[in-house]
Amino acid sequence: MAVLTLLSDSYTRRALGEAVFVGALCGAVGVHVVLRRLSFFAMAMTHATFPGVVLAAILGVNLYLGSGIFGFLVVLAVAALSARGDNASVTGVVLSGSFALGVLLLSAQTGFTRDLTAYLVGSILTVQTGDLVTSGITAAVVLVVLALLSKELVFGAFDRDATVAIGYPAGRLDVVLLLLIEVTIVTSVPAVGTILSVALIVAPAATARLWCDTVGGMTALSIVIGVASSVIGLVISEQWSVAAGGAIVLTASGIFALSALLVPATGTLARRRRARAGTAEGPDRLPAPGAYPHGAPGPATGTGVSS
Predict the structure, then answer these.
(1) Any long-range contacts for 171-177 (C-beta under 8 Å, 24+ apart)?
(2) Most exposed of 94, 112, 156, 195 (fewest Cβ within 10 Å)?
(3) What's the CA gap between 34 and 290, in Å, rounded?
(4) For residue 307, is it within any domain?
(5) Does the structure show a pLDDT above 90 at 145?
(6) In terms of C-beta density within 10 A (0-12 exposed, 13-18 middle, 19 or more buried), how is residue 295 classed?
(7) Residue 289 phi/psi, 5° resolution?
(8) Cα–Cα distance measured from residue 84 to residue 95, given in angstroms and rounded to the nearest whole number
């Protein structure tokens, strides 16, 4: 009945469509974020996108265009700086500095009254048809790019040195992935805002990683969880009149928490049962998150943009 209620009004139908597109997009991109351990970088990029969103609103230009251009410049800057020094340090500076710039720009505009929370946590119930079309096209393009570059991106995540050795342009692939992450964050702003978008990117993929030991299975399940979290969160928001962005992210986080408890091979409850039974974990155990199948080396950490 709650889902049928969402279909009764035009604004809720638009919100439902946005939830599906954003959930699928974040779920797909999140797989590569988790495989490469780029969660902290993704969080930094959400903060770095904030000044672009504020500038777009102040100048009266399209939000996607303004924040997208700014995010593109930030990605290039991070790529250039990471090639010269410590990735984590660069990411930390980008996180704090960019967010501070956004707050400064917003506070400097005395006549600017747009609500800050709309940028930080989203307002999916106010999306317009243009936002919906943009999200749908973006999701389709990103999914196609991920499908075309799937082998190279996954190979680079598990063994960057081998990727370079066999002739793949590892540096360019890294930049492409960073741009896809930025595009996903920008597209997610109307739904869950700049701050909460990182959770919708990471949580479904991290949950899928608990249940799957193949990249294909992980990707499919991550997309399903992303869409389900978005729709369920929207239903909760409509039913109990709470913030939609927060409800969506909490739903995704709750699914992850339940999975961490219940997953048969590596979940907390399963480990406790084995401990009580006095049995060791056998060799047929599924690879735990952070372990890598078939003896492959661990994924590259950081942005990995050095040549």
Answers:
(1) 171/79, 171/305, 171/306, 171/307, 173/149, 174/79, 174/303, 174/304, 174/305, 175/75, 175/76, 175/79, 175/305, 176/145, 176/149, 177/32, 177/36, 177/153
(2) 112
(3) 10
(4) no
(5) yes
(6) exposed
(7) -55, 125
(8) 18
- pLDDT value at 88 more than 50: yes
CATH number of the structural domain spanning residue 29: 1.10.3470.10
| Per-residue pLDDT, 289 | 57
| Residue 145 covered by a domain | yes
Q: How far apart are CA 119 and CA 137, in angstroms?
A: 21
Residue 15 covered by a domain: yes
Count of structural domains within the chain = 1
Residue 282, pLDDT above cutoff 50:
no
Selected residue with higher pLDDT from 288 and 25? 25
pLDDT of residue 280: 46
Percent composition of the chain: helix, strand, coil (DSSP 3-state, to 5):
75, 0, 20
Residue 110 maps to a domain: yes
